[in-house]
Amino acid sequence: MTCRLFPIDHVWAGALPVVSDDWAEIADRFVTWSASIPDHMGAFLSLKAFPDMPSLPEVIRGKRTASIYVTSLGTETEAADQVKALGGLVDQSARLAPTQPADLAEVFREPTGPHAFQGDAMATSGINAEALTTHRDELRAKDRPQFVFIHRLGGAMRTAPDGGTPIGNRGADYLARIITGPGPTDDSASIADEQGSLLRSLSIEPSGRVLNFLFGDNQSTAPTQDCYAPDDLSRITSITARVDPNRLHRPGRGRLDGR
User: Fold this and answer.
1) If you average pLDDT over residues 52-72, what whole number do you get?
2) 227-253 per-position pLDDT tens digit
3) Residue 132: which of 223, 38, 236, 21 has the closest Cα?
4) Do the Cβ atoms of 240 and 234 come closer than 8 Å?
5) What whole-number distance in Å separates Cα of residue 74 and Cα of residue 209?
6) pTM score, whole prediction
7) First vs last Cα of the chain: how many Å apart?
């Protein structure tokens, strides 16, 4: 594996709180806005529903939240103009701030400890925001948290290197993913069916899954094969058979033949 590093001395970044509670409207406006952002910007929409559980902090307990996370390698003025283009969708007092690349984790606030989550993800050419209304009841947090993320892709992700790549579905415009925190008695197969149904409704063809964001017991609903174009899958399978005939190397989600 050969890795190339790029010199980056600054990133404009921030989490912009969304003021609306209509997830379908939020997603539709995010997709419209993000369709025209330049390649040196990144953005994703975060929709979270939390159950009314005593163990959760009061600020999120039993509530739904929405935020748009934005990063930019452009100028301060350009970053400000992009936030302004979101209009009344986000809190207008929110700003992108100059951030050292090593400090981006503080912006996204991803958990650093182990969590019990089940997740599915689909790369797609577009987003059907109406699905968030159709699946409203499934997305209401009862006894488990539900998170939906819509990422704008493009940029260097879209350009495959010479000689092929094991990363599939690079030409997608968006990544839609859902994460569920299952309870002790939840059935993983039922959660996988709910997640798959929502993602298929959200996704506009062509689409395919993304291996990085598949986790939990959902192999039958979200098979590994969905992550690759047929020619790439055949090539990877052939290489695996040649260099590892005894199948000592076992991928985290099972072998490519589904076992």
Assistant:
1) 90
2) 888 888 888 888 888 998 888 876 666
3) 21
4) no
5) 30
6) 0.89
7) 27
Distance of CA 211 to the CA centre of its chain: 11
Place of tokens 């689909």: 122
Could you tell me how many helices (H) and strands (E) the chain has, helices first? 7, 8
Report d(CA 180, CA 190) in Å as an integer.
11
Q: Which residues fall within 8 angstroms of residue 142, CB to CB, at 6 or more apart?
A: 51
Burial (CB count <10 Å: 0-12, 13-18, 19+), residue 124: buried
Distance between CA atoms of 12 and 33, rounded to whole angstroms?
A: 18
Residue 122: both structure tokens together: 């689909």
| Tens of pLDDT, residues 98-142 | 999 888 888 888 777 777 888 999 999 999 999 999 988 888 767
Cα 248 to chain centroid distance, Å, stands at 31
Question: What are residue 123's DSSP bridge partners?
Answer: 175, 208
- pLDDT exceeds 60 at position 257: no
User: In one letter, which amino acid is 132?
Assistant: L
Q: Angle at the Cα of 192 (from 67 to 42), degrees rounded to 5?
A: 30
Tell me the average pLDDT across 149-175.
Answer: 83
Contact 214, 188 (CB under 8 A): no
- Specify the pLDDT at position 177: 94
Confidence of residue 259 (pLDDT cuts 50, 70, 90): very low
